[in-house]
Amino acid sequence: SNSTFFIIAVLAKYENQINVFSEYLEDLPDTDEPVWILGESYNVKTGKSELLSHVHSRLWFTYRKKFSPIGGTGPSSDTGWGCMLRCGQMILAQALICRHLGRDWRWVAEEAQPVEYQRILHCFLDRKDSCYSIHQMAQMGVGEGKSIGEWYGPNTVAQVLKKLALFDDWNSLAVYVSMDNTVVIEDIKKQCRQTNQDAKSRAGPCAWGEMYPSGESSPGQRQFLCPLSHSHAHSQQPLDWRPLLLLIPLRMGINNINPVYIQALKECFKMPQSCGVLGGKPNLAYYFIGFIDDELIYLDPHTTQIAVDSETGSTVDDLSYHCQRNPHHMKITSLDPSVALGFFCKSEEDFDSWCNLVQQEILKKRNLRMFELVEKHPSHWPPFIPPTKPEVQTTGAEFIESTDKLFESEEEFEILNV
């Protein structure tokens, strides 16, 4: 009947705020096993509110609609194709939160937040001049051989994040993406010791082209900075170690995850450097943040919300950027074997400690290794050159011939509920 339909429509509108349907009341398994979320453990029975606070505090990026068309004439919604890009935004946002606010920071609705929090949010708004917007990610993906509107796997998203981070002078994040299941310590240290000065300070998409005279720079020189923070000196000083987002794309089986890797995957979520995992089911991307027993806990981007319109420098209404219902979970055995593990190391000590944990928990205890960790760059590989910002900035938009072709292979994606 019409009235029932109306009620469902109203409930659907507020589904993020209120727990109505039973599937949103997914209770976690009743067990004495601890729940692990991004390196912290919780007791489901006694620590439920702390656990939920941790999950609700993560920045949650979903499909959006009614944003300005990508590339000027492309799609104005990413429903049906942008889920892995949204998961990439979530893993990167988690790294930025650890970098600026710390792992213990928690979000409370309607409460004042540090200026860095708003500045992080601005990096992800659905507009072409935000550093990690869907626009920037989709257009950078063109250089990775993806059409706008094409579905991405975890490895492609990792490569896109690595490139976009080069234009982000505020965070000066080093994004390292491992090759051939191998993490090379020497290469990471080389990339993280590149100082800010190596990467010339020029306006990247994160800066929105706003200029502020900088007290630190030599006369006549100006730096480009996000308009949200005038007390910017601390983030522009050269760092001995650029904070590291380490992404490890893996294939843990042929069609399904090989059970021998399950325990090692769990160990990754226990590490204090854990930044989550990109993955999902075939053509359904999720951002995994932890596990309990044999269930993975994840944030799901498959909800379409209207794009938040926020002026540069203004406060973003952030309610729709936090998932305020019980977390989703799924059986580990249902996981698609193609994933990218994420870790954030703020300092060199942090990275050294991660290397030790990997040796102890992943390499020494398992007969089949999930990935390799080696000290020196393999001699048969091409030499490692730390990525640098290209001299000519291009968004990739000019390579897009026509948006008509972009949605030809619709049947490869999930069936959308219209």
Task: Give your account of this protein's structure.
The strands form four sheets. Strands 1, 2, 4, 8, 9, 10, 11, 13 and 14 form a nine-stranded mixed sheet that branches. A two-stranded parallel ribbon has the order 3-12. A two-stranded parallel ribbon has the order 5-15. The chain is globular and about 50 Å long. A hairpin with a 2-residue loop joins strand 9 and strand 10 (284-292). Helix 3 packs antiparallel against helix 4, helix 3 (83-100) packs across helix 6 and helix 5 (134-142) crosses helix 6. With 418 residues, it is of the alpha+beta class. The protein contains ten helices and 15 strands. It starts with a helix and ends in a 44-residue tail after the last strand.
